[in-house]
């Protein structure tokens, strides 16, 4: 298979971890006789520095003319302290999602056997957890009208959803459930929000087309509690943009490190793959960042193109590295000095 | 001291647990020579059944003419399955908060030594946790304009905040921090929301009046993660309505049972005290519901009127009951058949 992959390394540890993912994809290409072409472009704080724009036109164009996008991370402390700044790195990511209509963000959450003891949660709570979170990514309060009164004393954000926006991500969630454990849990706040009541109505209707899938409802406050009390009850979680942001970061504690969590953001035409972790500025260029999330995002990219054996091999290599403690310090208390690139090397060699 | 206390037992286990709190308050009154007068009124599903109104005028009037309100719980499954119903129990609670201007919801989260092993979190993560959450309670997306298009295909909720709404709850949080560990963490989503940016600006300004308090910021997604990874980092958490709903329910896992968590909702004129748990319909009238949250809410009521020794005694009695395993089944694996009323009796006798 021939694929052109746009690489957007972004800020902080983004470039380092993305490099490992590229290494792994190249190994896969040579092993399975594919042609993967990589083209790099700026996004985030580095794009503001270079082009005064967190998402330069050239970057967007490259993304639109590529088959898939491999994303690193964005964010820089110099903007974090001033969230009112006119131009901010996050805008690049949000605009990319919107422009490419990446309406579904998919985050698998798994408890790896060899890492059960790394989690703040007790072993018996997380052993066997296997969740797939479907978060709506281009609607809701993220993209609704924002207003600030002239005197700067009143602010507002509008949360808006249409039936169509709910339907398209809901279908993906139900389809995923069919190839998993046949359960979808809709997380909402239908006892308070009008948008949540619309979600409940639309998703209930759609569920009728998936007779083999059980549909459950959970208020978001309760969901945040259940995620810790008994995460094994979940199979596929479906939710709106803001709740998905919170619940999926919370769920990352199950795996023992956010450095393991991959994600795919997909739409009708485009697809982007990125680690869940951020730019982790303190670790930049120290060769200590965990590349597994980025490498597993590459595996999701392979799955997206139905290269299932290839993806399987990457995941196997990752599991092997975890078992052998070829891991960065965030999850490795056994060996010192296993660097970002060493983990990448091991996984590359394994393939 | 003479106090008239409006009692709103509400639905499900509300009446049972509230009865224990009343018992405890009566014991305190006789021990310390106070006069507490209790007057009961309907709220929630039971008020819909009896008056076709989740917050009857008589109830609101009673609250307004009382010194404090002791609240049970609201919610009934017959409404949960239909969040689009015109009249719903939750409306009673939301209207009460709004009408009485209870703008700050205060939830203490503590890891009790004798319950450390009940939590899904590991002992070393939670040992010593002592957090006080200040949630804004009468603004934000809960009370903003809600719209549903005529064809029912587009819905919206407006999240709105004014400087004043932020200031008044922020002052309470900073004052609390001064009598605790001098740290306030503002939880927001300032990298996305205009309202969060207003929160950050206003709270940063207010912090200048409290030079001895350190102010920290955390994005809500990160906060949901940090609450589990390292809850000991928190002293006072300050946040808006929706985020507070999610984060405080999540934090309840630290204590080992939501059946232990008390809350106070306060405004300039009125104050209401209620357990964090809901109506728990499955347990209704089984005499198994944990009354501790309601009893600790009564302790918060006492503190509100600066009856500190009285409150201290109630808390001591609760800790004693926990240590001796005089506890309901949710946290008791040692003795069978310790009922709601037995726990109440023990605490009453202790006092
Ligand atoms: C960086 C931020 C805007 C983003 C979000 O909130 O969506 C991030 O937290 C994420 O989840 O990808
Ligand atoms: C019942 C519901 C409306 C309420 C809320 O969301 O505020 C509850 O979850 C709470 O936290 O008191």
UniProtKB/TrEMBL annotation, chains A, B:
Subcellular location(s): the record lists:
Cytoplasm
Report the pathway entry.
Amino-acid biosynthesis; L-leucine biosynthesis; L-leucine from 3-methyl-2-oxobutanoate: step 3/4
Q: Which InterPro entries match?
A: IsoCit/isopropylmalate_DH_CS, IsoPropMal-DH-like_dom, Isopropylmalate_DH
- SUPFAM superfamilies in the cross-refs: Isocitrate/Isopropylmalate dehydrogenase-like
Reaction(s) this enzyme catalyzes, per UniProt: (2R,3S)-3-isopropylmalate + NAD(+) = 4-methyl-2-oxopentanoate + CO2 + NADH
Instruction: Give the cofactor note.
Output: Binds 1 Mg(2+) or Mn(2+) ion per subunit.
Enumerate the UniProt keywords alphabetically: Amino-acid biosynthesis, Branched-chain amino acid biosynthesis, Cytoplasm, Leucine biosynthesis, Magnesium, Manganese, Metal-binding, NAD, Oxidoreductase
Q: Per UniProt, where does substrate bind?
A: 97, 107, 135, 221
Which cofactors? Mg(2+); Mn(2+)
- Report the EC code(s) recorded for this entry: 1.1.1.85
Instruction: Site Important for catalysis: give positions.
Output: 142, 189
Any single GO molecular-function term of the entry would be: 3-isopropylmalate dehydrogenase activity
Kindly name one Pfam family recorded for this protein: Iso_dh
Domain (Isopropylmalate dehydrogenase-like) ranges: 4-347
- What SMART domains does the database record attribute to this sequence? Iso_dh (SM01329)
Residues reported in the UniProt entry to bind Mg(2+): 221, 245, 249
HAMAP family, per the entry: LeuB_type1 (MF_01033)
Could you tell me what this protein does? Catalyzes the oxidation of 3-carboxy-2-hydroxy-4-methylpentanoate (3-isopropylmalate) to 3-carboxy-4-methyl-2-oxopentanoate. The product decarboxylates to 4-methyl-2 oxopentanoate.
On subunit structure and binding partners, the annotation says:
Homodimer.
Q: Could you say which protein family the record assigns here?
A: Belongs to the isocitrate and isopropylmalate dehydrogenases family. LeuB type 1 subfamily.
Protein name stated in the entry: 3-isopropylmalate dehydrogenase
Instruction: Tell me what organism the protein belongs to.
Output: Psychroserpens luteus
Please state the gene responsible for encoding this protein.
Answer: leuB
